[in-house]
Design brief:
The complex is a heterotrimer of chains A (about 350), B (about 80) and C (about 325).
Chain A: E1 12-13, H1 15-29, E2 33-37, H2 53-57, E3 62-64, H3 69-80, E4 85-92, H4 100-107, H5 110-113, E5 123-128, H6 143-148, E6 153-155, H7 160-172, E7 177-182, E8 199-200, E9 214-217, E10 222-226, H8 229-243, E11 248-252, E12 255-257, H9 261-271, E13 274-281, H10 286-298, E14 307-311, H11 320-326, H12 330-341
Parallel strand pairs in A: 2-3, 2-4, 4-5, 5-7, 6-7, 10-11, 10-13, 13-14
Antiparallel strand pairs in A: 1-8, 6-12, 9-11
Chain B: E1 2-6, E2 18-23, E3 30-31, E4 36-42, E5 45-50, E6 55-59, E7 66-67, E8 72-77
Antiparallel strand pairs in B: 1-8, 2-4, 2-7, 3-6, 4-5, 6-8
Chain C: H1 5-30, H2 55-62, E1 70-73, H3 78-84, H4 88-95, E2 119-121, H5 129-142, E3 148-153, H6 160-171, E4 176-182, E5 185-186, E6 189-190, H7 191-194, E7 211-214, H8 219-234, E8 240-245, H9 265-271, H10 274-284, H11 290-313
Parallel strand pairs in C: 1-2, 1-3, 3-4, 4-8, 7-8
Antiparallel strand pairs in C: 5-6
The chains are: A alpha/beta (about 350), B mainly beta (about 80), C alpha/beta (about 325).
Amino acid sequence: MTATTTATSSRKLTIARAMAEATAQEMRQDPSVFVMGEDVGPMGGVFGNTRGLHEEFGGERVRDTPISETAFIGAAVGAASDGMRPIVELMFVDFFGVCMDAIYNMMAKNTYFSGGKVNVPMVLMTSTGGGYSDGGQHSQCLYGTFAHLPGMKVVVPSNAYDAKGLMTAAIRDDNPVVFMYHKSLQGMGWLGTEKGATVATPEESYTVEIGKAAVVKEGRDLTLVSLGAGVHHCLRAAKALGEEGFDVEVVDLRSLVPLDRETVRASVAKTGRLIVVDEDYHSYGVSGEIIASVAEHDHACLKAAPRRVAYPDIPIPFTPTMEQWALPNADKIVDAFHQMMSQ
Amino acid sequence: MSTAITVPEDLWEGDNEGVITAWLVDDGSQVNQGDLVAEVMVEKAQYEIEAPSAGRLTIAKQEDEVVEKGTTIASLDG
Amino acid sequence: MQPTNDQRLWMYRQMVTSRHLEERIETIYMEGKTPAFNMAKGPIPGEMHLSNGQEPCAVGVCAHLNAEDVVVATHRPHHIAVAKGVDLNAMVAEIFGKATGLSGGRGGHMHIFDPTVNFSCSGIVGESLGPAAGAALSRKMQGKPGVAVAFLGEGAANQGAFHEALNLAAVWNLPVVFVIEDNAWGISVAKQACTAVPRNDVRASGYDMPGVHVADNDVEGVFAAAGEAIARARDGQGPTLIEIETSRLAGHFMGDGEDYRPEGEKEGLQQRDPIPRYRQMLIEAGLLDEAADTELVGEAHERVEAAIRFAQESDFLPPQAALETVFV
C-alpha cells in the first residue's frame, strides 16, 4: 500500500520505533537486508532506531562495526553492488567528514559510472540537528550538503508515520537513499522529544513515496515550507498566526532528493507568500533552493519577497544562550511574516 | 471490570522516579493484552509499559508526569 | 625511567585534581536533569564524557611536557587538560558555557582550546593524530623547540586517520608521540569485538616506529614509556606509538546505562582505581603520610571549587556574540 496521508490507526510510535519496525519487517521478508553501524547491535543504536533488531536477527545481520566509517560504508557500497541491501548508520551526520568519499564518490556515482548496470540499493541513515548543547561537531543538519550532490536520494521525516513509510521505501529502492532523522524528533526522552513527531503508525508494512511532499496544514495567506523538526516550528507558527486571523499553509518536504517542486509551487501560487524554515545553514542550502524553485518558475505569483528562517552561517555554538538564539523557532517565523506584511 | 496499569515494581533497579515520555495509544482507545502502551524514562534508560489485559484505555498520568514504581498510570475497562 | 619524588607528587596532585573536577561536574551536570533526563537541561547541558579512571594516561605523559609542547586530545579531554596546565578557571567556565570560558562558551566540553599551553581537542574520533603530526612538522620546519602528543582512544585505532597519520609521522620522522588510552570500550562495543589485534601497539611495526604497551593503568609505567618516547622525539629520532591499558570508570557519557558491561566489571575496575593505588604506593615509599595527603587533597579540591565558583559566578555572553569570532 502507498499512502500520503496519516492513517487512523490509534497505535502511536516514536520515530525511533518506526524506523526499527520498518527495518524489521523488511528483514523478515528479504534476507538480503542487513544493518551495520556503531552501537547498532545489542545497544539498539544510540538513538534507538535499531532497538530489538539484534535480538531478533542476530549479530550476522545486525553488525556492530569498528569506528571505521570509511570501511563499513565503503563495504556497504560493495555489498549493495553484489546483491545485498545494506542499511548503514553514520551515528552523527557531522561525522561525514571521515567517510564522505565512500558516500558521494562511490555510493552516489557507481550506478552512473556503470551506465546503469550496477545498482547500489543501500540506505545510509544518520542523525541530524541540535538544540541540546552538543556543540559544533554534534549538532549540524547538513541537509543541503547531501542534497546538493547528485546520485543519492535524501529523505527527512518529521513524524513516525512518514519515517516508517520512507524507511520501507528507502530499503526497497534500488538507488542509494540517505535517511536523515532529527534527534529532537526521535522519541529518545533524553533529547527532549517533540511530541508532534510521535503519531499513529500502522502495524502493517507500507511505503511513503520518496519525492512527494505533504501539505500538513492547508491555508490561503502564507506558505511555510520546511522539513524535519522545522515542520513542527511551522505548525506552531501557523497556529499563532491563525489566532491573528491569518490562514497559513504548511508544506513538509519529506524528501529533498527528488524534490517535490510542484507541491511547493502549487501552494505558493495559491498563497502568494513564501517563508522557508530550515535548521541547516542559511546560505547555499535548502532554503535558497526552494525559493529559486518558485521564483524561476513564476515570480509573478509572489505578492512579497520570499523569506527564510534558517541557521546563521556560523559554526554551532555550545552555550545554550547562543545556540537557542541562533536556532529557528515559531516566534522567528511569526516575526518574519509580520515583516513581510509590513513591506 | 476495571484493571489498573501500574508501573511494575521490577521495571528498573532502585527506587528512582521516572517520567512518562510517550503514550503510544490515545486516551479512550481499545488495546489488546500485551500491547505496548507507554514509555517511561529513568535517567537515560527507556522502559516499556505493556497492557496487562485488553480493554478501553483511560490515561491517568500524562506525558512528562513523574511516576514511581507502583504508580497507576492508566486504567483499562471492559 | 623513574620519576623524581617531586614528579610523583605532581602526578598524584594532578590526578586528584582531575578526579575531583569530574566528580563535581558529575553532580552539577545532573542538576535539572532528574527525574527526566533531558540533556538540554541544567547548568551543564549537552553530552558529558568524564575521564574518571584514565588519569594515569594524562599525568604520566604530561609530566614530561612543557607549555611549549603541543597536546591534541579527544572528546574526553578534562584529565589531559588539567595535566597540561590549561587554565582551570577558564576551562570550567567553558564547560558551563560562560563568557569567561576559554572561548566564551562557543566550544564547550569537547572543544577546549588553550593556545597559551598549546592544548586543543576534537570531538571526532581519530582526529587528534593529524593535527599533532602537523604541529610536530611545524616545529621541525621552523626549527622551534617542542614536541607534539596526540591522545586517542583504542577505538580510534580503527580509523583511517590513525593509519595515515602514523605513516606520515614515520616517513617524515616527526617529533610526535601517539598515546592510545585503551579503556576497552567504544561506547558499547568492546575492543576485542572490533579490533583485529589484541594490542594496538603492535600496529607500530607496520610504520617502522617503536610500539610500547603499558599494562594495568600503571602511573609510573606510563611515565617511563612516555619519557622515553618524548626524549626520542626531542632528540630527532621520530615518532612512537604507546598503548595504555586504562579504565573508564564512568559511562561513555553521562546517562549511559552501561548495560553492555559484563556483570561485575565495573566493580572490579573500581577496586583497581588508579588513584587510591598510587596514593598507597606513595605512602609506602614514604613520600606521603595521612596529614600530607589530607593537605594535598584539600588544596586540589579547593582549586577545583574555586574554578567552579568562578564559572558559576560568571555571566553568559549576550546571545548575539554567537556571530563573533567568525566571519559572516
